[in-house]
Amino acid sequence: MSLLQEIEDYMPGNQQEEQDKEQMIWFIKNHPDYLERTNRLAHFTASMWTVNKEHTKTLMVYHNLYDSWSWIGGHADGEEDLCAVALRELQEETGIKNAVLVSNRIFSLESLTVNGHDKKGIYVPGHVHYNVTYFAEADEKEKLAVKEDENLAVQWQSFEEVLQLPDEPWMVERIYKKLIERS
Questions:
Q1: Bridge-based pairing state of the strands 127-137 and 122-124
Q2: Which of 4, 125, 146, 167 has its CA 20 to 30 A from that of 140?
């Protein structure tokens, strides 16, 4: 199934997702490079909301670039199978190798603004990440590993901690609360 079809089939759970879904569909239909970072206005990313087997904790990374805790994800970089991208990012950023998808269907949609920043000595202008989140379970006893070029730390955090840690009220109110409620 194409990413466009996957997004069109997704049933939004709230007004934020309704609006973001509409914007994502328009963007795919009007920008053939929607999966590439070369599109400097926006491009697609994929995330994996990963919970323990009891659904009481989630796996978070402390992101170097954003200087903040976040759920796991990365750029599509031309790959349309965003679920595969999200699983690969989970493995690369955390060391988790035995995660099990709860479903291979979209778990959440969000448009995320990215401020301008330097990456490897090159300025990247502000843009939008059209993010597609998937949902997996993992054993919190599995050994974790930090991907040092991207993250300072990786750890399991209770849902309560997730709502306290970020300095970004919008992320807490619109994204993390939504993901926790669906877990």
A1: unpaired
A2: 167
